[in-house]
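--- STAGE predict ---
source: upstream dedup step, 1 unique chain passed
mode: sequence only
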Amino acid sequence: MTTARLLRLLPLLLAAACHLDGGTAATPHATCALPGGSSLGTDAMAVIGCGIIDSRYTAEVAVRDSFAYTTTWGFRSALGNMVAIWNVATAEPVLVDSVIVSGASTLGDVAVSDDGALLVVATERSNGSLVIFDRSDPRHPRQLSRLATPETFNGVHTAEIGRVGGHLYAILAVDPLAGAPTPESKIVIVDLGDPASPRQIFVKSVPSTAPFVHDTFLRDGLLFVALWNAGIEIWDVGGGGKGGTPAAPVVLGSVATVGGDAHNVWWLHDPASGSRYAFVGEESGPAQLGVSSVGDIHVLDVSDLTHPREVAFYHVPGAGTHNFSVDETSGILYAAYYNAGVRALNVRGDLETCTPAQQVTTGSLVRCDLGAMGREIGRGLSQGTPPVYVWGVQYVGGIIYASDMLNGLWKLRAVQ
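--- STAGE serialize ---
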């Protein structure tokens, strides 16, 4: 890809996940014995161990108990149609099994339900679907069902799962696909009350101004929707006081983030500031897999859900963010930063009060620069040798699990 414009149109042309070019000559490292020792030079997040996959590009990660599940993306020397199953009870992740998802050429999200009973996987390129597995045996998940409808045909990029009123739902972000019967991107909500018979209960097409949806975040009856250039919408699906339900959401408020390209979101529950902030990942362009990426973290004040405001940002020169995981007890956000590894930010307390020297003005908007405020508190896998391209992160019990497109799965020490 040679221009940012072409990069932004990639999902419309190919229904592909995450706006990267087709590949890189970079090869995975052979072991976890990295330059600088286990601490990887000056990185605060020490490497504990890693598991290697070199036949496919590794995508998203989900961890539960002693097992991690990683999806695969695109085409390397094999299709991205495999879910890798890792035993992560020891320092080195051990690949113990895998599942090949039929009819898929690339996989999007992977997620585990809050009770650990279910594993869900999003499949991409047409015919897109949501595949639901029983985790009674976490080493060998058993497929229960597969939801494939005309509304998921274009490809399901992300599949977030969560509860509203104690009932389990999946929120699907469906790709746009030129030439498809319904080419536009969509949000699809699925009732998982009976996981053997999932039911599609809501569909909403994304407006052409977006022009597509990438990710969602569901908690406390509120759904945050990342709508690319249209920014973030906040929906009442049972907790916003406006009568919304999962089958009939009500839009509470919205805001367009600086630079557009709103990719993902995390609504922080911080005891120091209540539920005041949401963090939005910008996946901009141009980007080259294994080499470069572009995109900031944007901070929204959502204390008024009907009028969210962008108040701060975090920028890494020469790199862009992808997905987040937050240790809300400690107030630390961990961000996958593609070629820059993993970054840790202190997001506790007030993020929108700063000195003039820590402010940046964009048009009429004044924002605090979290980097200038000293909010960065740790880095992992950031030395560039060997090259990494970190897609996803998950914080679990003092460990950061990082899915690296080039190399596989890493275990890092969380910031102490």
